[in-house]
Amino acid sequence: MTGWDKEYELYKHQYQELFDDCMKKEQETNIEFLEKNISKKTGRKVVACSNGTDALYFSLLSLGIGKGDEVMTTAFSWISTASVISMTGATPVFCDIDINTYHMSFESITRMYSDKVKAIIYPHLFGNMSDISKIKLFCKDKNIKLIEDACQSVGASFHGIQAGTLGDISTYSFNANKVVAGISGGGAILTNGDTDIFKKLRKHGEHEILGYNSKMLLFNAKVIDFRLNKLDEYVKGRQKVASQYDEQLREYVTIQDVPEGVNHTYHKYVIRLQNKDVRDKVKEKLGASVHYPTPIPEHKMYRDIPHRKDSLFITKIVCDTILTLPIHPYMEKSEVNKVVDTILISLEHENNNFLNQMKKILGEDLFDKSLINEKTEDIYDYIIEKSYQTPSYIEEVDFNNKTKLKIAFNKFYYNVIA
């Protein structure tokens, strides 16, 4: 559900005029108008190419990164964030993420660093941004390059600083599911440095170096340019939908943390649920997607590709519990409500499973609000929390005192569920 069909109905006349104009011109022609538009918005030099993957790959090639080098990146992203590293012959080093932002953990970066590291690819996920000042200082101190993967966050900003302006090299994507999309995808490389290498790489090396076919055709560039000029409209529409989700869901699921000062564009609206079983049931009911269900280094391809990885404890938790909800700028309130109702009905069913399991152990006389200020050992709180995540757990675990278990249950129920 991208919403571009509804957007087309709003601007059909402009699209038809744009199409007629482009069909009278050569498609393999100068697209500097798009590069200048992006440059005007970001204050950087820009080179357009076929897609965000090529933009990342060319960024690494321009730095001379290859076999024997290491590049650090996240274990939680679309796979091309990492696959481009292996394409150069370098070794990807997978870092864990922050449980709230889903972005690379600075602590993991410091743990996994080695003298072979030449760059960090840092993606902003889902249209969000985080404070990366520590990472920038770390890169400067270690004399390594920061490649900012802003493919999911065109239009986002952190305290007024735009995504795409923070890296030594930064990248955009205009894939069909993005906030700004081309007809056939698209990408861009942003830098303050020399751009000649990128122009050569996208056009067969201009017969001077080994290059690639990564051109962007005129009509696609015109559509991206047209949509870039409507970026604020798209973002406001997405933020309106996101605020409706936030308001109705925050008491029942984990909604995404948005740091102070962030202009979140909501390329994706994600929530987290109590465990994988619940997530998968809600996913099936909604026909929704999961971004992302598997840590990148656990994909089959990495069985044969050299890499290093951190323990990825947080990444695995997020992969098992995250769910992407439908969002686009033109969603009706009734469509949002339908999604919310489906989630809440599913969660009510899961809560009933939990309560039914607890009644088997503690009896029908389960609820006693007067117990919420009583204290018990931490183990009883743990048993209740674990049983909420996996209701059958209560039948598997041993405990000594039903009274203490009842106290822990009521504390949890009235503070978390009720």
Question: What's the layout of helices and strands?
Answer:
Layout: H1 4-10, H2 12-23, H3 32-42, E1 45-49, H4 52-62, E2 70-74, H5 80-87, E3 91-95, H6 106-112, E4 117-123, H7 133-142, E5 145-149, E6 157-158, E7 161-162, E8 169-173, E9 187-191, H8 196-201, H9 218-228, H10 231-249, E10 254-255, E11 262-263, E12 269-272, H11 276-286, E13 308-309, H12 313-321, E14 322-325, H13 333-362, H14 378-389, H15 402-417
Strand order of the largest sheet: 1-9-8-5-4-2-3-13
Query: Structural class from helices and strands?
Result: alpha/beta
Instruction: List SSEs in N-to-C order.
Output: HHHEHEHEHEHEEEEEHHHEEEHEHEHHH
* Residues in helices, as a percent range: 40-55%
Low-confidence stretches: none
Shape: globular
Mean pLDDT: 95
Radius of gyration: 24 Å
Distance between the termini: 33 Å
- Give me the number of helical elements: 15
Report on the biggest sheet.
Answer: 8 strands, mixed
Number of strands: 14
Strand content: 5-15%
Task: Give your account of this protein's structure.
The protein has 418 residues and is an alpha/beta fold. The chain is built from 15 helices and 14 strands. The protein has helices at residues 4-10, 12-23, 32-42, 52-62, 80-87, 106-112, 133-142, 196-201, 218-228, 231-249, 276-286, 313-321, 333-362, 378-389, 402-417; strands at 45-49, 70-74, 91-95, 117-123, 145-149, 157-158, 161-162, 169-173, 187-191, 254-255, 262-263, 269-272, 308-309, 322-325. The strands form three sheets. Strands 1-9-8-5-4-2-3-13 form an eight-stranded mixed beta sheet, with helices on both faces.
